[in-house]
Amino acid sequence: MIVTGDRVVEWVAKQTNPIGRFGPSVGIGFERNGSIAGGAVFTNYNGVNMEIHVAADGSKSYFGRRFLHECFYYAFVSANVKRLTGFIAEDNLATIKLAEHSGFEREAVMKGACRRGDVLVYVLWKKNCRWLNENL
């Protein structure tokens, strides 16, 4: 079941952010058995770009087509940004795989930008987002 709101934001922040919070943001998540199993948080909107932060509970859950469609519809249609930017620690192979499968491309490397090493900067352009027209 897809859910939205502060509960998702708080859950994703605890999974991804050392200080456990984001500034103004929007959360879209999915629940299993009444608990959040994964989610995406959209932050730092500036009219043309916003950041996306994702997390999952580590189980066999996956970000399905409907969830991805909802996330990208929010960003590219509702918020009308031209691009989404994701920051991923270089050792977070599962998130790198998800980002690349979802259509994100590596744009840059921020050397030594997190406690675990480098941060990879990924971008997904609206014009390249295949999830907006996905038949659900």
| Total beta strands | 7
Number of DSSP helices? 3
Tell me the strand order in the biggest sheet: 1-2-3-4-5-7-6
The residue fraction in helices comes out at 25-40%
Structural class: alpha+beta
Q: What are the secondary-structure elements, in order, as H or E?
A: EHEEEHEHEE
Q: Taking all residues together, what is the mean pLDDT? A: 91
Name the beta content range. Answer: 35-45%
List unreliable stretches of 5+ residues.
Answer: none
Tell me the overall shape. globular
Radius of gyration: 14 Å
Task: Characterise the protein shown here.
The chain has helices spanning 6-16, 65-78, 93-102; strands at 2-4, 25-32, 35-43, 49-56, 83-89, 105-114, 117-125. It is of the alpha+beta class and 136 residues long. It is built from 3 helices and 7 strands, in the order E-H-E-E-E-H-E-H-E-E. The chain is globular, with a radius of gyration of 14 Å. It has a 7-stranded mixed beta sheet, with helices on both faces.
Question: Would you summarize the structure shown here?
Answer:
The protein has three helices and seven strands. By secondary structure, it is an alpha+beta fold.
Features:
7-stranded mixed beta sheet, 7 strands, about 140 residues, alpha+beta
SSE inventory with pairings:
Blueprint: E1 2-4, H1 6-16, E2 25-32, E3 35-43, E4 49-56, H2 65-78, E5 83-89, H3 93-102, E6 105-114, E7 117-125
Parallel strand pairs: 4-5
Antiparallel strand pairs: 1-2, 2-3, 3-4, 5-7, 6-7
